[in-house]
Amino acid sequence: MTQALKYPTTRYRVEPPVDFAARNERERLSGAALKAFFNMMAHWKARDEDARALLGGVSNGPFYEMKRTPERVLDADRLTRISYLIGIFKALRILHSDDLADEWVRLPNRNPVFGGQTPLAYMVRGGLPAMQTVRRLLDARRGA
Is-above-0.85 flag for pTM? Predict the structure, then answer.
């Protein structure tokens, strides 16, 4: 008679993903997410036009209001976008020096994914799916 194999128990707790559909979670995360977003845009020297596009096409008035007063509740889409961008920012900091990490998004890239564009232009044009692709590419490069 064969004995069923058991996987060893892990000492790591697996937390469920944050529920961006829950208003209380969005309230908890939105202010910090916006502050992080504007900090990343400053590091990347992104134009406001590009930053607005990365947030999903925010018009001028609401964008500058967010910049001035980040204490607001974002919708799930904007939080998801910022989450991907934070992951990209972190991966770049792991892979490169701070200066190159900040410049990387503005440099033309020979990777076929980008088609000769800068990663920033690729993400602006491609939206959330492009952000997911860049995040996966960088995570693969760092072996995550």
Answer: yes
